[in-house]
Design a protein that fits this description.
Elements (H helix, E strand, L loop, with lengths): L6 E6 L3 H10 L6 E7 L2 H11 L3 E5 L7 H11 L4 E6 L4 H4 L9 E4 L4 H12 L4 E2 L1 H16 L7 H10 L5 H8 L3 H15 L4 H10 L4
Parallel strand pairs: 1-2, 1-3, 3-4, 4-5, 5-6
Helix pairs in contact: 2-3, 7-9, 8-9
Length: about 210
Amino acid sequence: MNFVSPVRVLIADDHPLVRAGVAATLNDPEAYQIVGQAKNTAETLAMVLEHRPHLLILDLQMEDFRPASLIQQCLEFDALLKVLILSSRSNPDDLAPLQHLGIHGFLVKEEGPDCLLQAVRVVLSGQQWFSQQVSQNLKIMREENRNSALPAFSTREMQVVRELVRGKDNQAIADALQLSKNSIRRYVTQIFQKLDVKNRMEAVVRLNERGIS
């Protein structure tokens, strides 16, 4: 593991029996220290701030829960935090908002304690771990995104697109294409509108999904 033992673990799930089951599975004081058990979003965030866990085991169906927002806040507070999703659902609607948030694993609740232990060990080692069902759904989603048609970009917009995915700012793109910075700003705005995104990061992600890199 990349962490000094015992690894501090926070369990967030609105079902007491699930929290107890996860805690029992990780009942190895030399390896793991359960620093808290949260039942909702507010408790989860407060315990992350207070206890600075190494690993957050997080349910996706807690009450009043917006997982993308919570995960983003937790990782902004501690970029080293490992996030392992524990969920009874693994359909594309659940997975799509999480793809680019930097989660480290996704475990389906139907799997047994041995799978949980394996997932925890792999995630703490710095790798990703996904249940087979989740991996299959992610593969399907990537194929669907790759096959999605690109918006109808003009020739000039397509030139700007290719510079965008290389990470260039507006001035660098202007220099490369021998255009004014204002012209590039206008093209970038048009590209954002066609992609239905708000910023460069979202645009690059959307373009990468469609095979432009």
